[in-house]
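Input.
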Amino acid sequence: MNTAKPESIALFCLTPGGVALAQRLQTALPLTCFTSEKLLQPGFIPFGESFAQTVEQAFSQYSALVFIAATGIVVRVIAPWVNDKLHDPAVVVMDERGEHVISLLSGHLGGANELTRQLAGILDADPVITTATDVNQLAALDTLAANLDATMKDFRLAVKTVNQMLVSKQRVGLWWDTDFSKTAGLYDTRGFIPVNSLDALPELDALVCVTLRAELAELNIPLFKLVPKRVMAGMGCRRDTPPQIVSELLNQQLADNHFDPLALCAIGSVTLKQDETALLALAEKHQVPFKIFSVDQLSEHEQRFPVSEFVRDTIGVGSVSQPAAWLMSDGKLVGSTLKQQGVTITLGVSDRC
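Output.
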């Protein structure tokens, strides 16, 4: 998701007062600061062809944009590039005196609300946040999803529905599967009703379940499954294996271990497979990283697993999928390794994506 990271904040200032404020902020946060040629100071980058053109480039390159400028100017300059809450960067606006910091775009998923509070704290300014859940001092499903590195089916509709139910004071339950129950207290869940067991539900209008499971028991209320991305798939395959075969076998392996496909966080293999069409297509299809490990990295762990001399002679290490999954999941492997049609798949579950 498009959660803002401190190291990828672009700041734009248009006036001498804005430059001075940006210099204050630079002492507290790692910022890439842009301004005009005539206002340029050490540590600042000049606009390219124009202010608007520089913003256009930054919109896709940075996870957060901060403007020291009038809100109207900012609205007009970003308008052509605004897409949706899943992909837009956080956009925050402040006045050059540093009295008000406004969360303008991507408040929850993009992290603009959090960044607004952080900047306001640095400047002792007033944070201006207008999202309904925040105004009502409630948690938001999209913020919880971002903090968990989680996703769900029909994400936009689910978020809209659940957040509206929360601000309407309807009873929305929140159940954490065993893998996540111990860390549930680390997250903002204000407004949700804690549910300890799916077999004994309190009176609810809807239920959000945090789980990796592919299937849950049917309930007589609307159920929204929030799936953290935690499953790592170490993979090996013969050269030029058809993408459809690899995809079908991964789905089979996930199903055999009762994982929701949305739980997939990354796939990994050996360096020799970094240009393997089927694996690249698989990563693109699931929109997950394709992690590459060297022979030396895999060799450090191959003694833990059965090895194939044929694979060793071909690649330089006797096992690929198992040590790759081991490395990605910090040794937390699950199930047995699938070996079919020249494809091997080993799954692991990591604490974080």
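DSSP finds 13 helices and 17 strands in the chain.
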